[in-house]
Amino acid sequence: MSLPKYQAYRDSGLPWLGEVPAHWDITRLRHCANVQTGIAKGKDNDGKQTVVVPYLRVANVQDGYLALSDVATIEVPPDVLSRYTLQYGDVLMNEGGDVDKLGRGCIWRDEIPDCIHQNHVFSVRPHAVSPEWLNLLTGSAYAQFYFMTRAKQSTNLASISSTNIMELPLVLPPKEEQAAITAFLDRETAKIDALVAEQEKLIALLAEKRQATISHAVTRGLNPDAPMKDSGVAWLSEVPAHWTLTPLGRVTKDRCDGPFGSGIKSEHYRDGGALVVRLQNIRSGFFNKGESVYLDEEYFLAELQGHNVHAGDVLVAGLGDDNNLLGRACVAPARLGPALVKADCFRFRLDAARASPEFVAWQLSAGAAHDAGVLATGTTRSRIPLGAMASRKVALPPVDEQSEIAQFIAQENSRLDALKFEADRAIGLLKERRSALIAAAVTGQIDVRRV
Q1: What is each CA distance from 434 to 185, 196, 211, 438, in whole angstroms?
Q2: Beta bridge partners of 252
Q3: CA distance 117 to 300
Q4: Distance (Å, rounded) from C-alpha 421 to C-alpha 335?
């Protein structure tokens, strides 16, 4: 879309903003709105009358929307409610968080009655500018630049004070022009958001396709005409007649290992040495190096070498929750270096003549959701004892067929990864286009009044 520029511009006086339309005003946020900080949790209310009210936290205020599935409550004296209760049209802004989201938020539209906000969420109450225009400005790239240059930063986190928020320069077209720009951006961003949603839907379908492909391959094989038999295992149902059902421990070449680790102390941790394989390293079908933790290699060699991990070992998660399935498995990659399994992780070193590590890891992961309910103990977090995991039945074709199936899965995953990469790339480009369009419109780099 090629859009015209305004006829006349003037210098904004701000090097990072540049020129703005000649008839636009520039002011500071403090002249157009009041900035209200929130209430701090943990105040002593002993002996005071209190009421319980909803309490908006940083996690609830996202970039452009509210996440209200989990809203906390807080006890406060009634006399503070008038100060902290949110009002319709307040522009919510987070005081801190990820650098790229600093200061961004959304408009409060009385989604929850009598709701207050915490001290890490600013409530900006406009009186000389519309909430819609103010929200567009504070979420734009030029405001983001301002926030980043004035924030206190540490690593990837940042925070900004209410004083700096109040000094944010605001570009103000005439009110009717603000409304025209807002309407234009509502239409155009809705179109972009719809395209993003389509790509996200495609990514979800690709994930479903991946799971279905893997599950079918490791339970039915690649020959659609193969005779079938009842496996006697509920989640497996029927498997090809020539496959063998056997406990996982029966195809283990070396002893099963894990969990352990009570002897490991903080003084053993180092920046390098022996890698400690933890739950976060084990994903369904792949090893995630993630945030690595190491042990002193001398301590490892002296005390823990019997717990070592070799390339090709099957690693299984013995603990899980709703987001990370218990029983998921992967194969330890090559060039891992000295490594060992720690608490709630199991290591199975398979007999290569009978079992392919890749095939077994994929099949364990495919059945993880079912096994978590059958083999597990515990309530909030499911746990599988090592003995139960070793007795878990696996359905094994001949080892060359296992390798063929594992290779097929690898090829399909590669194809699906390429499609997901393209969808992710499209989403990135669309979001860049959205951000650039908003920034250009609210700073007057394009004239959208008649579009």
Answers
A1: 9, 10, 32, 6
A2: 350
A3: 49
A4: 26
What are the structure tokens assigned to 95, written together?
Answer: 């005081």
CA–CA gap between residue 427 and residue 447 (Å, rounded): 26
Helices 399-442 and 131-138 sit at what angle, rounded to 10 degrees? 120
Which of 31-35, 302-306, 370-374 has the lowest average pLDDT? 370-374
**CA gyration radius, the chain:** 29
List the single range of 70-79, 127-136, 286-295 with lowest mean pLDDT. 286-295
d(CA 399, CA 244): 11
Beta bridge partners of residue 340, listed in sequence order: 276, 308
* CA dihedral for 255, 260, 264, 266, sign (positive or negative): positive
Q: Which region among 39-43, 51-55, 266-270, 426-430 has the lowest average model confidence (pLDDT)? A: 266-270
* pTM of the predicted structure, to 2 decimals: 0.83
Q: What CATH superfamily classification does 244-396 receive? A: DNA methylase specificity domains (3.90.220.20)
Let me know how long the chain is.
451
What is the C-alpha separation between 239 and 236, in angstroms, rounded? 7
Q: Choose the CATH number for 25-172 among 3.90.220.20, 3.30.565.10, 3.30.70.260, 1.10.8.100.
A: 3.90.220.20
Cα(175)–Cα(177) distance, rounded to whole angstroms? 5
Q: Which amino acid is it at 415?
A: R
Place of tokens 């393209």: 422
How far apart are alpha carbons 407 and 414 in whole angstroms? Answer: 11
